[in-house]
Amino acid sequence: MHAAKHTLSPSLPAEPRLAGDLAIWIFILAELLAFGLFFAAYAFARAHDPALFAPEQEALNRNAGAINTALLLTASYFVVRAVHAAEAGRGRQGARWLLAALGCAGGFVVIKLAEYVAAFNAGISLSSSTFHMFYLSLTFFHFMHVLLGMVILGALWLNARRGRYGPRDMNGIESGAAYWHMVDLVWLVLFPLVYVIR
Amino acid sequence: MKYQSQAVALPYFVAAIGLFVGQILFGLVMGLQYVVGDFLFPEIPFNVARMVHTNLLIVWLLFGFMGAAYYLVPEESETELYCPRLALALFWVFLAAGALTILGYLLVDYATLAKYTGNDVLATMGREFLEQPLLTKIGIVVVALAFLFNITMTVLKGRKTSITVVLLLGLWGLAIFFLFSFYNPTNLVLDKFYWWWVVHLWVEGVWELIMAALLAFVLIKVTGVDREVIDKWLYVIIALALVTGIIGTGHHYYWIGAPGYWQWWGSIFSALEPIPFFAMTVFAFNMVNRRRREHPNKAAVLWALGTGVMAFLGAGVWGFLHTLAPVNYYTHGSQITAAHGHMAFYGAYVMVVITIISYAMPILRGRACNSRKAQVLEMWSFWLMTIAMVFITLFLTAAGILQVWLQRISDSPMPFMAVQGQVSLFYWLREISGVIFLIGLIAYLVSFFVKDGDKPATT
Ligand code: HEM
Ligand code: HEM
Ligand SMILES: [Fe+2]
């Protein structure tokens, strides 16, 4: 029984500890695998036809992408602050950091939506070209993850306000934070790959 | 048996096993028709046998799922079934509807059957797996809804566990996606598109939830491992199944006239579909390794572990084999598809239903487990059926590779029927494996009647 407890709720103090729940890490790994495959497919398709990809890539709004990168990074920073606050027993203060992270994530969503509107107005669709297919699929798949990440941050915020997290109960906030960092990390690959590298 | 009303599961399990026998007999008929073309012609044409084989499969698996739910839900919810008499009445309705439908297939020609069952009112027939007459389809929906009502009410009035939640999600999903069998647009692309919402989203979506729940239930019972541990696995597995399986439907949209991006989406997401199946295998072995008790029902443990392994092989490995668009371009609709279909259905759904039957049946018959002798015979049947299925799969895969090569890749492609002649040796071998499968199945049946020479194997 102890062995069983150990793997799935690894909160025994003595040994090196995995931050967050093993279950969320399995899920994160699966997500990274999905994005990884998608990125590999993109790289493969692009290598086949760089001439098609270049001009359409050029047409993307790199400023919007850069601002969004900054927003996600900032959100990640705030999440880290929230975790530290909880660890130091100042869980309620952590709630404010989480709210700030949510604000950044909301900014990302607004900018991304504006980009989509511009794209659709320009006649870009999943079928208009292979590059557009990848651009829309990859960013939208990531976009959905940002939304899910926001739901998770929102739940953390509610719990933190109720003073649930502290040095004794870090599992929830660490698991949620790990998920958010995954969302950020994926964007850090996506942005250069799709918007920048030519 | 902890709750009196769990007993309604018994007739469901008996019917499931009975129809299973029928399914295999028709499989053997078809297997022979593959090599002796006019066998039983004109009494049982191949297309009719095929319909009976596949529909019996689906129907007996549904009997199995329903029986499993009636057995499992009261025990998990710690309360009697909401209405046992409804469950019993539905059993007879479903059995009668099933029997009439099969008789209809066998005795009346299909067009006539269609005419007399309202197909001109709403045309839903004539599509693989969904051949049932309109009346039968409506019957299925009515039975499913009444069944879900009964089960849901039981869950609502009792304890809620992750197993019952996941099971209910799966069963409701099963019923909801079946509704797409009533949608039959004249546009052939749309027809196929939504046809897969039944077929694919069943086996690679909601049925996986049912399977995970049944497996988790049996594993808790036979290993005594903490519920908390199993709960987490369960949620991870269903999240993975849904994330990969829903968009994974795209692996059927490559060549039917759907937009081209499905080739990318389908390839990428379905390539990840083996992960939840792999997780289930790891889960099953993990639980058994951590067991805190030695359950006397060894046969049930064997079936549970076998489900994990065979589902991963059949669905995960054999599915992955042909799921990427550039590969599927060549293998689409070949014997490789049939190889995969057989091992996946057997490894995942046939085996999980037998797992729960193996665990529950002795209890329903008033003992913790069967006698040692009966269990040994049951384990023999496990190995005979499973190994026979592995060989059926391997022979069909060999036939499929040759077929694809001769018919679609080589410089001088041969016509379909000429190729079938070339690979007939493999069809003979498949038929022989099928006979061994039947022997295994007979051994399984006999294991229910082995008299306790020694006392039940207790520990
Ligand atoms: C237990 C789960 C599964 C079952 C019962 C199952 C069963 C089947 C069946 C019966 C067919 C044939 C459908 C037809 O009549 O055309 C089929 C097709 C197919 N399956 Fe599965 N399957 C499962 C899981 C998977 C998985 C996980 C993958 C991918 C990794 C996969 C990939 C495919 C593909 C690509 C086809 C289409 C083959 C073709 O183009 O002809 N399946 N499956
Ligand atoms: C539990 C065991 C079995 C299961 C789960 C099963 C399942 C299936 C399924 C899902 C299909 C449709 C395949 C597709 O659309 O690609 C099918 C077709 C078929 N099965 Fe089985 N089957 C089983 C046993 C057998 C046996 C023992 C035989 C005979 C040796 C057999 C012979 C056939 C044949 C000949 C077809 C038609 C393939 C075609 O259309 O070319 N099956 N079975
Ligand atoms: Fe599929």
UniProtKB/TrEMBL annotation, chain A:
GO terms for cellular component: plasma membrane. Keywords: Membrane, Transmembrane, Transmembrane helix. GO terms for molecular function: cytochrome-c oxidase activity. The chain crosses the membrane at residues 22-45, 95-114, 134-158, 178-197. PROSITE patterns: COX3 (PS50253). Residues 22-198 form the Heme-copper oxidase subunit III family profile domain. Belongs to the cytochrome c oxidase subunit 3 family. This is Nitric oxide reductase NorE protein. It comes from Azoarcus indigens. The lineage of its organism: Bacteria, Pseudomonadati, Pseudomonadota, Betaproteobacteria, Rhodocyclales.
UniProtKB/TrEMBL annotation, chain B:
The keyword Transmembrane helix applies. Keywords: Cell membrane, Electron transport, Heme, Iron, Membrane, Metal-binding, Oxidoreductase, Respiratory chain, Transmembrane, Transmembrane helix, Transport. Pathway: Nitrogen metabolism; nitrate reduction (denitrification); dinitrogen from nitrate: step 3/4. The chain crosses the membrane at residues 12-36, 56-74, 86-108, 134-156, 163-183, 195-220, 232-256, 262-288, 300-321, 341-361, 382-406, 426-450. GO terms for biological process: aerobic respiration; electron transport coupled proton transport; respiratory electron transport chain. It is an enzyme of class 1 (oxidoreductase). PROSITE patterns: COX1, COX1_CUB. Belongs to the heme-copper respiratory oxidase family. This is Nitric oxide reductase subunit B. It comes from Azoarcus indigens. The lineage of its organism: Bacteria, Pseudomonadati, Pseudomonadota, Betaproteobacteria, Rhodocyclales.
